Amino acid sequence: MEDENITSSRVKQLVKGANVDPLDIIRQVKIIGSVVKKAKSLEIAVLIPIIVRDKVIGIFIIGPKMSGDSFTDADLKTLEIISGQTASAIEQARLYEDDQTKSEFVSIASHELLTPTTAIEGYLSMILDEHMANVDETARKYLERVQTSAHRLSNLVKDLLSVSRLEAGRIKVKIEPVQVEPLIENVVSDLLPTTQEKRLSLTFLKPDETLPLCLADPDKLTQIIINMVGNAIKYTPEGSVLVLAESVDDKIKITVEDTGVGIKQEDLPHLFEKFYRVDNTETVGIVGSGLGLYISKSMVELMDGTIDVESTEWHGSRFIVTLPAVADSEEEQIVESKK
Questions:
Q1: Which DSSP state fits 9?
Q2: C-alpha distance from residue 212 to each of 174, 180, 208, 248, 323 (Å)
Q3: Which of 88, 78, 79 is closest to 57 using CA atoms?
Q4: Confidence of residue 102 (pLDDT cuts 50, 70, 90)
Q5: Are the C-beta atoms of 140 and 128 separated by less than 8 Å?
Q6: In terms of pTM, does the model score above 0.90?
Q7: How many helices (H) and strands (E) would you count in the chain?
Q8: Which of 52, 112, 165, 262 could pair with 313 as two cysteines, CB 3.0-4.6 Å apart?
Q9: Which of 23-32, 85-94, 297-306 has the lowest mean pLDDT?
Q10: Residue-range domains of the chain with CATH
């Protein structure tokens, strides 16, 4: 093959990455024509393969030194290091591009799915409204199952959209002084009907005195409380779910306790990871995406807070969100400004 007539006289020195022959390197990266044509018109001193995951993805072609001196072992070692750093940079760039592409796809797909799922839920609610449509019992039963599935799909789409926005840095928080008690009361009131099918009590144990204001985004904090209380209800077949709020030092703590199935100790370190779900005999039939706690943790951290968990299998769980409180002097100023 004419392309292989690159003689050893033209390749004076060679760093053999992974003991690969330079001609094999050229063939592997599929640039025989362009490289060899240039090789015949250039004086080549060194060919260095760029290798990523044992695969040659390119070549450094280096001409002779302008001084005419030969490359020393130190020179070749430096070039090997540069080749390795280049390969690492290329690999990181590719991984970043892959992650960006996946993130953009998930974001676009989730956004496009959100509109039709919202419409489906809306029309199903209208059909099941006795004042708007007459539906026989058999059809109603089937439609209610469809409605449940549509609601589940809608929640999954919203979770995926939240994750893609979080990872792209597109979720912004608006920190402001917030009174947490009304937020908790609203969440408990909204979720109370979901406990009626279980032998389960849901209670907000209000503090004796009004708590200091909390520094948080009220919408994000509401979403976090909904997730915590919703999980407690979901994983508690019977017993109780208790929500508490307290002021500790310069922090506001919101705690959700349940008497549910609990969590194994080996699962606790992974609980806030994406798509991680606890697996035991009591959770087999419980649906979920494994994204709620990941989203909650990310949002809490955006508000300079923390979320922790304490649990023992079969003995319930306790989730604690801790957020900064407004200092007394700042709270007095806020009260005065509202007068």
A1: T
A2: 19, 9, 12, 10, 11
A3: 88
A4: low
A5: yes
A6: no
A7: 8, 9
A8: 262
A9: 23-32
A10: 2-71 (no CATH), 102-167 (1.10.287.130), 176-338 (3.30.565.10)
